[in-house]
Each structure stands twice: as C-alpha cells, then as structure tokens.
Amino acid sequence: MSLLEISGIDHINMCVTNLERSIAFYRDVFGFEVKEDHRELEKYPWVTLGVANTAYLVLYQTDEAKARRDMRIVHFGFALKDAPAFDRVFEKVLKAGVPTLNDQHGKPYVVHYPHSSSFYLIDPDGYEIDVSIRFGGGLDQQ
Asked: What pTM was computed for the model?
C-alpha cells in the first residue's frame, strides 16, 4: 500500500516563452479555461489553466525559457474522455493544423499500445503532448 493515494495528475508547471500564445493553444486545442490569472506581474507572469476536476497547467512566462530553451518536461499526457473518438479527434487535430510529433517518414507519430493508442502534439514551446484514448494507457483496464 502506498503512503498517499492519488486520483490523477493534479497540475503541471511549465515555463513558456509567450504566455498569450500558450494560453490560446491550450484553450483552442483542449478547451482549457483560465482559472487564475496573474499576467499583470512584471516578473514571471503566470496563469493557471484547466478543465475542472480533470487537468490543470500552471504556465509561467520567463526570460530564462526564451534564452535557454530549458525544458525539463519530456512530455505529458492527456486521456480523451471518449475512447472511440480517437480517429475523429486525430483527423480534427490534423485538419486544424496543430503541430504533431512526426515519425522518420514525416508522418504524424501514432502508437497503438496493447490497451490504448496515442498521438503526439507539439505545443508552441516544443513540449510534446501524448493524447491517449484511455487514461493511464488503459493499464488499469486489463
């Protein structure tokens, strides 16, 4: 038994190079809403974006992110609510021109795991986002 029981990822903090561009990306692609807004701060303006009781991101605009491109998150994932919608959502994303991680042939990278499938998007700062049809890659549905 673990010390703490969790229900999912609560939030991810990320440094971004352009706060407005990142807000628009997560709003338009995933339906995130601004939950806390501190864009007025001179140093490290930030916002909390989220989908209620599902996922939250805290985005900080920093000069360090612009200068060093120092990204410490390899990728993070979101699970779709409607598992059978994978093909429909994937086509919608491609049609909208959202950047994807591509395979060695230049085609959008799609992976079919034993219990789930994923495709990978690239946000405005180059963070990779795993979009999966089942929460946790379907590992708990075995």
From this structure: 0.73
